[in-house]
Each structure stands twice: as structure tokens, then as C-alpha cells.
Amino acid sequence: MDFSSSSSGSSSSGSQPSPEVFMDQLKSQLAQAYAEEFLETVRGKCFSKCITKPGTSLSGGESSCVSRCVDRYIEATGIVSRALFSQTR
């Protein structure tokens, strides 16, 4: 991870970013990594489950299946996240 630059303009080059800048950068990078992992997982799982004959467009059944699959994955991710965050407090 590269924490050498800051969005809030840290002073001299080569100096360590302030703890606030560091945490903001870390949160941003974690959010991006989470989003990428989420999309890759949903894409892989829902595609393999719902798309039986890949073509140029989705059938109505495939579209409904993908929508339900993504909804279930979002719901499950939320449940896991809430459980993890409730244990850390």
C-alpha cells in the first residue's frame, strides 16, 4: 500500500502522513478492495449459477436469477458484517 501521498496535503515530502490522513487512506483502500472482492465473488457465483447458455443478452429467467443471487449475497454479507462489528465493540 502506498501511503506517501495524501489528499489533505501533508507538508514535506518524505515525511509520514498524519494518523488521520493515514486512516483515511487505509479506509479508502480497504473499501476499494472490498468492493472489488464483492463484485468478483458475485460475478463468479451468480454467473455460474444463473447463466446456463451465455449469449448476447440475458433471458428473463437468467436476469431474475442474477438479481435474486446478488440480493442474497448482499443480505448475507450484511449479516456477517453486523455480526463481526457487534463482536468488536
TrEMBL record:
MF GO annotations: metal ion binding
Membrane topology: Peripheral membrane protein
Subcellular location: Mitochondrion inner membrane; Mitochondrion intermembrane space
Pfam families noted in UniProt: zf-Tim10_DDP
GO CC, any one term: mitochondrial inner membrane
Keyword Disulfide bond: yes
GO aspect biological process, one term: protein transport
Gene3D superfamilies per record: Mitochondrial import inner membrane translocase subunit tim13 like domains
Tim10-like domain ranges (all copies): 25-84
Keywords noted in UniProt: Chaperone, Disulfide bond, Membrane, Metal-binding, Mitochondrion, Mitochondrion inner membrane, Protein transport, Translocation, Transport, Zinc
InterPro entries in UniProt: Tim10-like, Tim10-like_dom_sf
Record comment regarding domains: The twin CX3C motif contains 4 conserved Cys residues that form 2 disulfide bonds in the mitochondrial intermembrane space.
Family the UniProt entry places it in: Belongs to the small Tim family.
Function as written in the Swiss-Prot or TrEMBL entry: Mitochondrial intermembrane chaperone that participates in the import and insertion of some multi-pass transmembrane proteins into the mitochondrial inner membrane. Also required for the transfer of beta-barrel precursors from the TOM complex to the sorting and assembly machinery (SAM complex) of the outer membrane. Acts as a chaperone-like protein that protects the hydrophobic precursors from aggregation and guide them through the mitochondrial intermembrane space.
Subunit: Heterohexamer; composed of 3 copies of TIM8 and 3 copies of TIM13, named soluble 70 kDa complex. Associates with the TIM22 complex, whose core is composed of TIM22.
Protein name (Swiss-Prot/TrEMBL): Mitochondrial import inner membrane translocase subunit
